[in-house]
């Protein structure tokens, strides 16, 4: 029965029984091994071991979504910590995609999204993959409950301590440190300064767009003042003209829509720039805010483009 239950694909081999695919491998030898292991285990996936010896090698196995995977092969028997890390790594990226589960990249921003009850929820946006992976991994381990985050969390992948701030179900990574002896107040001050620099065009942090008009609120909530070694920021400064005053009072999403119109922009171009905020009825939300900005005389529509006044 050399190839019984084994189906050859273009670039892989599948183990199939009763129209149910139980494994997929890149070579016939591994397919035969898994097929025989399943037969010996009476086709019961709960009987599959995490590690097994074969041909002077140790194979690390896992069962994920009712399929068997060979994660690694070792000459020497790996310890439990190594096995657990391999299993976790696979569960976070079972399809070997570029960023793993729930992470996508828009321009230079990494965004975490998950479908819950048929709706797409955004859990955070980050300017580097390391932070996005840490938040994604934490949420996977805690059933996507952002309330499980403490102010400081240890990241075993990078051996660093990360300062986390949850705002409106978003998890923001404020900074990373090599030690858990962290001055939280100073970290909060520097984070608020970062938001301010982005707001006033002194730096570009697209992942902080949603916080540009919430600095005073965050200062009060965190009981700190925005502080920077070089710049001084003052909220509520009288603007030079009425237009600036109107812009200053926009809601965070109105401001994000306004900022997305650089020169002139089509609806699709605006939508692409705002994709990190995607939620139910996303197109309707953008259209509604565009109409509100038109009523405020901040933008106008010319043919298929929106233009700032």
In a nutshell, what does this entry contain?
This protein is α+β, with helices and mostly antiparallel strands and 309 residues long. Helix content is 32%, strand content 28%.
**Strand residues, percent:** 25-35%
Q: Give the SSE string.
A: EEEHEEEHEEEHEEEHHHHEHHEE
What is the mean pLDDT?
Answer: 88
Q: Which regions contain 5 or more consecutive residues with pLDDT less than 50?
A: 236-242
Write a concise keyword list for the protein shown above.
single chain; three-stranded antiparallel β-sheet; 309 residues; alpha+beta; elongated
Can you put this structure into words, describing what you see?
- With 309 residues, the protein is an alpha+beta fold.
- 32% of the residues lie in helices and 28% in strands.
- The chain has nine helices and 15 strands.
- The longest helix is centred in the middle third of the chain and has 16 residues, at 184-199.
- Residues 236-242 have low confidence and may be disordered.
